Amino acid sequence: MFAAVRIIGRLALPLVMGVVLAISAGTAQAGDAAARHIIGFSPDGAYFAFEQYGTLDAGASDSGWSQIDIIDTRTNQLVGGKPILVVDETEEATLTLEQARAQAAAQAAPILAQYAITSPAEQAASDKFTFPGEMVAYNDISRLEQVSQKWLSPLHGETGISTIQLDEILAASTSDCSASFDVTRQGDQLLQGEKPLQGEKAGKALGFRLTLQGQDGKPFKILHEDKTVPGSRNCPTSYSLSESYELTPAGKPAVIVVLVQRFSQGFEGRDRRFLAVTGQPR
Q: β-strands 228-229, 161-173: how paired?
């Protein structure tokens, strides 16, 4: 269903590459933190869509890229089995960020229309220090990773959720992620809210679990738990929570979407990407 533009050159970079544009004025450097744009829900809450975008950190190219995820919230699976991705990974790439975003939007338009994905997404919780709508400069990515939270507390909504908790776990992986466990994230100190990983790391990668807690402080649902970590995550070094969205369609169960930040070691520096976890909280 999706016709992604993908040109592979000598620099075989990861599936989704990133951005390096300072929040304040500055010069782009290696490493990248993608920005995201929330597109919204279908009226019945069955579908949710968002875009993440940036420029490649390949050094020789500042080529733009855009990825649009259209998700069936009932199954937490991508419509068509994969995202809409516009990227040119060759060293001679001339695709601008504006061109990449326009091409991705054009590809997504008929699918968004098919599912009537136009309903605004109401933000229930956010970590304001993650700057999800900005392409973060290289020098700020490690600081962003260090201060990002492992929990969110929705301020409003009808789901009865008091806390969304993220725990990092070990999960099976077909990729050799041993090097990612050797990356020091803040000297010898754990990041905020982080717990020591227990268990054999051979054949494993860093995954995560999302748990919903009620007003009584007790967990009532595991919204997501990685059993395997796909190679497209590029051997994550950490995860954290960015924001959550809720929709309660008339006569239908409430729907929740949690945006998770995934950090990994990119081509020339640390990268940030977004993952959307969807489902019914009850």
A: parallel
